[in-house]
Design a protein that fits this description.
Blueprint: H1 2-18, E1 35-36, E2 53-54, H2 72-78, H3 94-97, H4 100-106, E3 124-125, E4 128-129, H5 148-158, H6 160-163, E5 199-208, E6 219-231, E7 236-250, E8 258-261, E9 264-275, E10 280-290, E11 305-319, E12 322-335, E13 343-354, E14 360-371, E15 399-410, E16 415-427, E17 434-443
Antiparallel strand pairs: 1-2, 3-4, 5-6, 5-17, 6-7, 7-8, 7-9, 9-10, 10-11, 11-12, 12-13, 13-14, 14-15, 15-16, 16-17
Length: 444
């Protein structure tokens, strides 16, 4: 029975054992802890077997630690922390070398690459990048002023208009951040524009003399000359306020006409407040009045005079018809000797930029002169010459208030003209019945 059962099994399995195998296995490799056979799906049956890849000795270190004697790249693969500061790649540029945040990224102790946090938006002032405290190294704080750098930065943040500058400005170019402003027309030698400007400004003035004026008894005074300004920065400039010729045609019989060179007025100006965002600007200047002109027209009085002044301008509002701008200039004349008359002056300028087209500007200006001391050059006279002449007369206590409607027309950004008629309305008229002023400005 057992033999019969064995024969049936042998007959049934014989066909299967006689079949050719579908795949041939290679010669088995003895097992090894350090050998792994690489595979290649593209090898042909006739190609020799690929060499086995050998791994290095597997240490007992755990992920995140790494062997102590391993090189930096292997420690990185383990995810181990760097023990020393890694240097930046050679491809970094100069800006990256100065960026402490970038350096901290290379100090990252974690595994893999670390994305930098997005940089905050750069604050601007008038469309320009505002200077940050980190841009320029202020150096060590002096012993006499601890934490000087921080204190100056706090001041700059609280008073942004004091320190900001236009870094895109061309050499000697006028301040372009206040292009919609215009200069005062009347009292031109003293009513200084607060901006730092480079320009030439020819001026013509015709002034009528009151008929009841006891010395001239009518007639007229004319001035023809120029002003010049040079802006070294958007804050520092030099101003030639007055240079030209003065001519007097008196109405008094027997008193002949005369023409002479005028005094020279010039000096520096500094813009100490400048905020284009609010269109506010303020400057301070020092004017030196040099009496080097003709004596017959009172252009040689005393040694010389000094006039410190402040000029402030701002945009004060806007309506459907345009924008209003206000400029106020105030100062005080001080003679270096007692031969010149001292006085206080103030000129207020108001204009309207019609339609905000920056072309036509109706203006209204008020000027006030108050004489505080008598001059001893010509004490027998009792009138003064305002901005045309320092007579050195006995005019202490005299006040002159005048009003002047006018306009300024701007042909383009470089050329404009102004016209105004001025009338005294309060106080002593002295030698001014009315004044007509005309100027032309070429500005760089």
């Amino acid at each position: 029975m057992n033999r019969l059962l064995f024969g049936v099994i042998l007959v049934s399995t014989a066909p299967a054992l006689a079949q050719t195998p579908a795949a041939r296995l290679g010669t088995p490799v003895p097992p090894s802890t350090n050998t792994v056979r690489s595979s290649s799906p593209d090898t042909s049956p006739d190609s020799p077997p690929l060499p086995a890849a050998r791994l290095g000795t597997i240490s007992a270190a755990r992920i995140g630690e790494g062997p102590d004697d391993a090189p930096p790249d292997e420690r990185y693969n383990w995810g181990a922390r760097e023990r020393t500061r890694r240097t930046a790649p050679a491809s970094r540029n100069r800006d990256d070398d100065r960026d402490p945040d970038r350096d901290r990224d290379f100090d990252t102790a974690g595994r893999g690459a670390k994305l930098r946090e997005p940089a905050p938006a750069e604050p601007t002032h008038g469309g320009r990048r505002r200077r940050e405290s980190g841009d320029v190294d202020p150096g060590p704080d002096p012993v006499w002023w601890p934490e000087r750098g921080r204190d100056l930065e706090d001041i700059r943040q609280q008073l942004p208009g004091f320190g900001d500058q236009d870094r895109d400005r061309i050499a000697f170019q006028s301040d372009c951040a206040f292009n919609n402003f215009i200069s005062p027309i009347t009292n031109p030698f003293l009513a200084e524009d607060p901006r730092s400007l480079t320009e030439l400004r020819p001026i013509f003035m015709y002034q009528g003399i009151p008929g009841n004026q006891y010395y001239y008894q009518g007639g007229n005074i004319m001035f023809l000359g120029t002003q010049a300004r040079v802006a070294f920065t958007d804050r520092v400039s030099v101003v030639l306020s007055k240079a030209g010729w003065v001519s007097v045609n008196p109405g008094r019989p027997g008193l002949s006409s005369e023409t002479a060179f005028s005094e020279i007025w010039l000096g520096p100006k500094f813009v100490f407040w400048r905020t284009p965002d609010t269109q506010t600007i303020a400057s301070a200047g020092l004017q030196f009045q040099l009496p080097i002109g003709g004596g017959g027209l009172f252009q040689d009085t005393g040694t010389f005079g000094i006039v410190p002044y402040i000029s402030v301008g701002t945009k004060i509002g806007e309506i459907d018809y345009g924008s209003f701008h206000l400029i106020n200039v105030a100062g005080y004349h001080m003679g270096t000797d007692n031969r010149r008359s001292d006085y206080f002056f103030d000129t207020l300028h108001l204009d309207l930029d019609v339609g905000n087209y920056h072309r036509f500007y109706p203006t209204l200006e008020l000027s006030w002169f108050h004489y505080t001391t008598n001059g001893e050059e010509r004490p027998f006279l009792t009138f003064e010459g305002r901005d045309l002449a320092n007579i050195g007369a006995s005019a202490q206590g005299h006040d002159i208030v005048s009003i002047a409607p006018g306009f300024r027309y701007r042909f383009n950004d470089y050329l404009e003209m102004g016209f105004a008629i001025e009338f005294p309305v309060l106080g002593s008229r002295d030698i001014e019945r009315y004044r007509i002023g005309l100027d032309l400005i070429w500005r760089y």
